[in-house]
Write a structure and sequence with these properties.
The protein is α+β, with helices and mostly antiparallel strands and about 150 residues long. It has 4 helices and 4 strands; from the N terminus they run αβαββαβα. The chain is elongated, with a radius of gyration of 18 Å.
Length: about 150
């Protein structure tokens, strides 16, 4: 990755005068936006996370959380990301996961300068064309606790 151009001929002067720290939430939001750009993604998060998030969204005036379903671990130079997805029926899941992974890595590395060491993807559900959000949440909550 190329370093930003520094004026006045000293390419490392500004870089040596302090450090930049990235919060986990910054990487989570960037990853969330990058995942949503990929066609075939219905939503992020598990059924429980989406249910709780929907209640929180209603309480906060209807804004959805961009980072729902994403957990990032950020170090000084690297980051690792876990993401939970709900995909649209008909999407080829291995291809979709690869596209999401590529888009997240590209966006996070470009916007933060951090090296993405891994993007772990959990596909938690498939959204059917005739399935409403309430039905999905009910089905997801019924599945919990059955197998560990």
């Amino acid at each position: 990755m190329s370093k930003p151009h520094a004026p006045h001929g000293n390419p490392t002067g500004a870089e040596q005068r302090g450090r930049t720290v990235m919060a986990d939430g910054v990487v989570e939001k960037i990853a969330g936006m990058a995942a949503r750009e990929v066609p075939g993604i219905h939503a992020l998060g598990s059924g429980l996370a989406r249910t709780l998030g929907a209640m929180r969204d209603r309480a906060s005036g209807g804004r959805t959380s961009v980072s729902r379903g994403i957990k990032a671990e950020v170090g000084e130079r690297q980051t690792a990301i876990d993401i939970a997805l709900i995909v649209e029926y008909g999407a080829v899941i291995p291809e979709l996961a690869a596209a999401v992974r590529r888009n997240i890595i590209s966006s996070v590395e470009r916007l933060t300068g951090l090296e993405v060491v891994e993007v772990n993807i959990a596909v938690n559900d498939v959204h059917l064309p005739d399935e409403s959000e309430e039905e999905e949440e009910l089905i997801s909550s019924e599945r919990r606790g059955r197998v560990q």
